[in-house]
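Hi Q.,

Before the meeting this afternoon, I wanted you to have the S-adenosylmethionine prediction in hand. No need to reply - just skim if you have a minute. The sequence and ligand are here:
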Amino acid sequence: MKDQFDREINYMRISVTDRCNFRCKYCMPESGVENLGHDKILSFESIERIVRAAVNLGIHKFRLTGGEPLVRKGIVGLVEKLAQIEGVHDLAMTTNGALLKDYAADLKKAGLSRLNISMDTFYEEKYREITRGGDINEVMDGLDAAVAAGFARIRFNAVIMRGFNDDEILSFAQLTLNEAFDVRFIELMPIGHAENDWRYGYVPNSEIKDRLPGLVPVSSKDSVAQYYKYPDAVGRIGFISPMSDHFCGSCNKIRLTADGKLKPCLHTNEELDLSPILKTGDDEALREAISQAIFNKEEKHHLNEGAEPIDRDMNKIGG
Ligand code: SAM
Ligand code: SF4
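Predicted structure with the ligand bound:
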């Protein structure tokens, strides 16, 4: 359906949990993280109801994220249920990849269409540092398992931070040369209560692109990433620039938090709590509520105009 600014909203990101096996410095605070209680987390049944209502409103693309979606118990069963809903044309997942080794084959079998793996460095030590304890070898094993399971055109998400991994920009870009991997550079965003220092490491995507001469633009249906490629490369390089280049005008998505709040925009504190409606069992009212929230979606965010970062940490929204 269209919102009040004539944008076609056809994509929903669903955070299935706020929990994570890592504590990435730009995403979550190191300690003092209060996880949502089990009674607050949307049940799989509720997620299914919301997806059915969304499909009715013309939303056909869904992405499961978190927190880390693979730490939610029974995630494969949820994928299987959602993939079977008529009108779900694309069901993807964003993961840190560390648990993929055990899940990739089952996820593929259950009907997951696509995978995004977030990885900000190729080095073991640096990986451990940025994730506060993660093991990059597990991610590599997960990647192998995903490729073996038949996931095509896996996308890597990388957040480049000055002084931390800006010396690896070329290595990321080169991942696309010989294999069907897409690499997407996501600008660091000031969100939630993550460690402040990391906010100053922001590198605009224009700088990253300048450091990758020879790229040619390619057209894509992706509404947020601008894609390029090396002329003979198999994969593509995407730039997601929420800070330097407002893509709000072409935004096609809404978000559902793990505790049942609909967030029409990542960067505003506006949320619609679906829990009371879910308790009533009234699917018509659920559809109406989602439809209203979509219609009233804000025109644009104001982050690059000095607006305060939003309260929720990224793991609590679903990146
Ligand atoms: N745990 C999964 C993962 O890491 O892929 C899914 C959730 S994570 C919140 C989704 C994406 O958000 C990741 O690619 C991560 O790098 C990105 N992200 C988290 N905090 C961010 C921030 N402050 N700025 C930019 N991207 C961020
Ligand atoms: Fe966890 Fe993903 Fe956030 Fe890292 S970016 S702490 S893996 S949710």
